[in-house]
């Protein structure tokens, strides 16, 4: 492409006037970034190009979106915007000085005050040479910056504001999603006292008040002190902060969060959580070996677990020399701070041909028809991520010839090793209270969240998520009348319970537990871990067995009765996702994990679980809804006190807990907890529960018993709960009406009906006419039928996601995928050929149907 002119501050005097005249026609399109504007100066909206890429990054001076060299023309043609700020960062090897060290030689340092890239700006071996220039399209006029005297004042102010703008991924306000953690300014130069302090593997307590929870290790002097007090009554007495005010020692790590992959570090000086790139060295100063740290049940960690049985070492294949893999399909993903759950799921998703075709195969069309702000478009960001993983552009092996050339030219060209999914995570988690945070999350929940977004954002004629979609037939039987009801629902995951009672090494488990308790009582290191060995056949059997239905109301008896429910496959999906239900809740309502080994098969046949429908001799339950029950007073209402106490123990007011359990129909503490979160700011939040009068019961009393309200409108409290989860009001009302105000079934109904999110009021009225126990089935099996890909029930394993740690709230995820006949491990940025794939320790398994 021809360049018409090039201007710089050192050109002839005529250039000054020319610059002003050159920019005059474009002045109305040049904006100064305001406080609410997001400036994307580190990453292209369509690719993972950055200022460090060969072509640099072009930032639009009107929209502040960034574009790589390959995509800038598309934005110019679509918007007509002509003026862009071109950013380029070169990585230069430092010149050794006379003393053998490197001479600092940074140029244009003030141009990029807040430029966040994948490189470490504190690297001792390299320095950065930054360049910025204005580029005017379509003739590619270039104006080298700084040119303060020659440029119009507005342009100078706009350029300065753009260059100093904060990252768009930083938290804008207390309610917005969180940014990825930044490295502390104290990490590299932290001074650690040589005072002989050694931290034991367990048994910690605050040195000032003897508290044994929420403890922080000061990384300067090794003091162990308690953290601040929290609103729910947990926390500590703030002795760690007091110590900082007395000494000025800035960094502390939370004991109980140290794993082989990192730890929670807080900077008192910077007043925020931070990253410590040198955390392993800082912990080793006090005798803590990160690679041997393992979570224990009380949140502490000990380093006495033998490496050969620790799930951290086994799952990550530590101790084995693994061969790095490069090229298309072997691209790693940067961990943004507990984002490994996202990395593992997306690697598995884009190993599936249907997703590859839908997004990467349609990439030109998706990009060409993307909205003006492609950073806020789901399909654009999916296509961008898929191309980044599959193109091989960001997974290139180092070449010897390039290394020799770099040495000769004293220039370092960093290899594009992996991608950083900042923009993808920012969009896909926007508005979600969990995924928008920096906390660890459940990969299974994120998988369903992703599928929900895929359903809501169709691309092309086929929906790629259909490959996971299957119908479940649920058979409910009244134990007294023996009559049955058959219903169907849509699902995407087969959840298998862990049959602990079927463990094949029970004697070893009993002996281990006795030794563990003895060691705990004597405060000795625990014995070598013994993991329960569970046959897969036992888990499959547990899945197929009948389950008791709590509070079952029999329409045949017109009364409550004992009921059982069994589940079968009404259809088999193209890709079967199997979750081993390792996570459960403890008495403290904290998720915990069953550390078990399940012998997952490479080939799976579940044909025997095919649904058969109503059988000869079976009689169906009458299609009659339960009656509306109006309690005379609060005492007549049966409130689940165990759920109330679980919530109260978390620090919430007792009356608020009673209201939460009441208004969510005794569906359990988890559902009631969501109600509390949605209503905490209300002025009467902690006021005593008042049962509505007869005329008011439709808004709340109906919610208690799952009955239909007097005016056929769902209870407002239940509507509010669903809205608080991010769904629209119309959809919440429609789901509740379709399921007789059963909150759990309503949520399932929503996930199985994404196409109905924008239903109009007339459609809601039509649903009122069809409101019965099977309304969800009728809606699902409309004229076109459910979107399923039924076929054989025989499958082959091609991938699995494993979790390390004791709960979904902590730990690390890794993905193993079978590609080109061999297993490959995807551990964030690290992609290697797997030598010992730990198929027995997985959490989520991916199977592909074997063609008949």
UniProtKB/TrEMBL annotation:
Its EC number is 3.4.19.12. Coiled coil: none annotated. One of its GO terms (molecular function) is cysteine-type deubiquitinase activity. Residues 331-850 form the USP domain. GO terms for cellular component: cytoplasm. It catalyses: Thiol-dependent hydrolysis of ester, thioester, amide, peptide and isopeptide bonds formed by the C-terminal Gly of ubiquitin (a 76-residue protein attached to proteins as an intracellular targeting signal). Residues 182-290 form the UBP-type domain. Keywords: Autophagy, Cytoplasm, Hydrolase, Isopeptide bond, Metal-binding, Phosphoprotein, Protease, Repeat, Thiol protease, Ubl conjugation, Ubl conjugation pathway, Zinc, Zinc-finger. It is found in: Cytoplasm. It is an enzyme of class 3 (hydrolase). It comes from the Eukaryota. InterPro entries: Papain-like_cys_pep_sf, Peptidase_C19_UCH, Ub_carboxyl-term_hydrolase, UBA, UBA-like_sf, Ubiquitinyl_hydrolase, UBP13_Znf-UBP_var, USP. One of its GO terms (biological process) is proteolysis. Residues 638-679, 713-753 form the UBA domain. The active site is at 340 (nucleophile), 812 (proton acceptor). It holds the Pfam family zf-UBP_var. Zn(2+) binds at residues 206, 209, 226, 239. CDD domains: Peptidase_C19B, UBA1_UBP13, UBA2_UBP5. Gene3D superfamilies: Cysteine proteinases (3.90.70.10), DNA helicase RuvA subunit, C-terminal domain (1.10.8.10), Zinc/RING finger domain, C3HC4 (zinc finger) (3.30.40.10). Its main location: cytoplasm. Belongs to the peptidase C19 family. PANTHER family: UBIQUITIN CARBOXYL-TERMINAL HYDROLASE, UBIQUITIN CARBOXYL-TERMINAL HYDROLASE 13. Interacts with UFD1. Interacts (via UBA domains) with SIAH2 (when ubiquitinated). Interacts with BAG6; the interaction is direct and may mediate UBL4A deubiquitination. Interacts (via UBA 2 domain) with AMFR; the interaction is direct. Interacts with UBL4A; may be indirect via BAG6. Interacts with NEDD4. This is Ubiquitin carboxyl-terminal hydrolase. The lineage of its organism: Eukaryota, Metazoa, Chordata, Craniata, Vertebrata.
